[in-house]
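Archive entry. Fields below.
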Amino acid sequence: MHFIIKLIRLFKEQHKQNRKEDEDSRRSEESTQGLSPALEKNLDTVKARFGESSDLIIREFSFGKDKGAEVKAALIFLDGMVNQSTINDSIIKPLMHDGWYFHAKEASDLSGIDEIRDRLLTVGEVKTAFTYSEVMDACLSGDAVLMTEGSCKALDIGAKGWEKRAITEPTSEAAIRGPREGFTENLRTNTSMIRRKIKDPALKIRSAVIGKRTHTQVNILYIEGIANPNLVCEVERRLKKIDTDAILAAGYVEHYIEDAPFSVFPTLWCSEKPDAIAGKLLEGRVAIAVDGSPFVISMPMLFVENFQNTEDYITRSYYATMMRVLRLISFLISLFTPALYIALTTYHQELIPTTLLFTMAASSEGVPFPAAVEMSLMLLIFEILQEAGVRMPRPIGQTISIVGALVMGEAAVQAGIVGAPVVIVTAITAVSSFSIPFASDAISLARWFLLILAATMGLFGITMGAFILLIHLASLRSFGAHYLAPLAPFQKAGLKDTVVRAPLRDMKTRPQEIQPQDSQRNSEAPNGGTDEQGGKP
Amino acid sequence: MIKKAVKTGRKLFLPFSLSFSRQRREKARRATAVLLCTLLILSLSSCWSRRELNTLAIVLGTGLDVGDQPDTLKLTAQVVKASAIGSGSTAKAGGAGEKAYVNISYTDKSVLSVLRGITHMQSRRPYFSHNEVFIFSSDLAKRDMAEGLDAFARDYESRLHADLLISKGKASDILQGEAALEKIPARQIGDMMEDQEINSETAVVTLRDFSIATLSGSKAPVAPMIEVYESGGEKHIKLEDTAVFKGGKMIGELDKSQTRGLLWVTNQAKSGVKTLDTRWGQVVLEIFDSNSKLKPVKNGDGTIRMELTVNGDGTIESNETNEDMSRLENVEMLKGLMKEAIRADIENALHQARTLSADVFGFGEAIHQEYPEEWEKMKENWEREFPKIGLNVQVNVMLHSTGSLTEPVVPGGGQ
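PREDICTED_STRUCTURE:
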């Protein structure tokens, strides 16, 4: 029986593959077709490929010697994707003004079009295209294509210039003393922002195109000499394995390359801030920037990164350390408080201080639901409020907070539907989870898990849940790095940037767990000696 | 070169080369295992003891009396009325005049049957984890402590660090007493016991201390006594004297001075006030930071006597005379008086203990630790041996300061 099913599956797969191959070969045949010397024919083909696309603009014009001997040419581009001033001033204008000496015969020569490229076009980036698919790709990526009568080559002129969002302050990560600029949706802008931070030729930006339909540009950034080459290879390998038709944001890429897709905890870190990503690159990590996404992914990710913030390295180390501790505490609070509240009020009332117990008992007087149901309800409402607040347009968002805060909180308690402590616990939980924004989605899922365990088994359940979470965290890997490092496995040097943020001058080594090629940040020799020739080339 | 890197990369980083279906099957197996473990964990938690806060009758004080019928006992549980005590908006429902507690009494043959019996009268089950005081009436204590004591010490719910008191009258009356500063009388007693260390006139005893003393065999357990007194038509409660037990029964009492003597010997007197009568009038000393050490010593003839060293530190708290007490000879005189007072307390307590032939000081245990062989011989008739044990008292007193004044407020004389 098993065998038959396997056989059928095998056949199906074979069939699918055959069909796919057919399609692929047909497509490739079409695309490799070369351009014809006849301009009319070329234009017809391009028009046919684009169909009825209204944004396709074909500007036909002629230039050169007197009538009869002039050169017929056409400029093909997609409206909105090109910079109009480049088209007008750097392509059409020089051709029509300065191309007076051209003769149709010259232009039809193989070298004619090269002459145009070399002597007339005042554009920085010009390539030669030979096939229809090259022409199509150039148009789609925002370039203008120049074709001339009689030439079976076309010029792919870089005229990219579409409307894009200006560099603004990131909305997801606020900065107090750090740089305020955030990534945009434009890939080049993003990489240039990193380039501006790390002025070193060793910063390598490798490119890849992912997505059969979207042809999304994806760049891999790393610093040669710091990042482990094995890590770079692995990142490239995983990117190459992505088989999908659409990559619309960085998150898509994350899902395809992450180590633990079924875990609630993220194993890839991402940021909207160039300084944060530059910092990660300098630690020996690899970053992936995806066109169309204001988030840049960095890997490998360690659990402690949830508690780190770029501001930590700017503020003085005592305060930064305090903030780290606070974040750790708020992580624990937002994870455990609802569960602890349930466990204490329904199983372990003896652990509550007597006077507090009275207050809690008083407020649970006349409340119709069991504590666990009450807590779940309030947490559910909080999650709904949060979601609604995020998704709603700004002006409506305010209404939500009023309705949420006043009606849900105050009125529910007044009406005796929920007890006041439950509302307080929900509020504390919510506020705490916001102080570690990156992990808050993981926490809100794990919180429910613990809540259920606490409601059924009390503190025993919480202990079990905590162990399960801990074991899970310890088993996670991100690109070969142990997720809980430098705590487990224990690395002494890494502790300087864990709960404590040591002064920068003492943090001489890069995180050991991600195995950087050059583990030393300063010019000392790696073994800590202060010899003269310690500096690395 | 790149190929090589890829190869090593595979070794270093997660083996993605594993075929997908195998990975998935592995994952499914693991998920099943986790699910199974979770289900098994559920069975480990044995007792399903979930109880909502609003189904609990939180007991803060328990009184035990002799029941009306023979062989019964009457248990009075002081239960908090949460709706009346709570703060905030919920408190308004209660109103100002309402009492924040209810006393529930029930009479039956045993503690446990009483507790179950209460469910005949009340909608909530009594919850003893927050019980702060156990009050046994002296009638019951004189008859037998065992029943009530054992049930509460054995039960997992009640705490061993609850205070134990003996009421001079009925225990249920104590729980009715007026608590002016607290909402619940039992809390008043519980909090009161915490303050006793500043006067060192009450032996504070928890259920645990009492049980340990009972189990030791040689030591006679003690417990503070509490009584109701009337003033202005209202009933109030007051701590007074100490009850002495032997063989699980109350056999006698220690008065205030004897209680302090007991505390001196057992190193429990830490702080207190002593009024001394001098030639010129009263001087009040505050004792603080005092300690004592009890040590058995063998006499020449093989008998054992106890050596007690008491170190008392004090300051002059008030000087009602017009004599300058900072003068050296006066300081020496005060120290002498102080020593005498402490010695008198101890002698007093010793006399009473000998009369009752009850080893309230724990001499037996001290001897057991120091001279185990001798103790083996004495152990059998310790009751008769105890009154014969001699006690040598050495009192050292230090007067540290005269307070923030040196000369009396009204000076005169002495020049």
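CURATOR_NOTE: Residues 63 and 71 of chain A are 5 Å apart (CA to CA).
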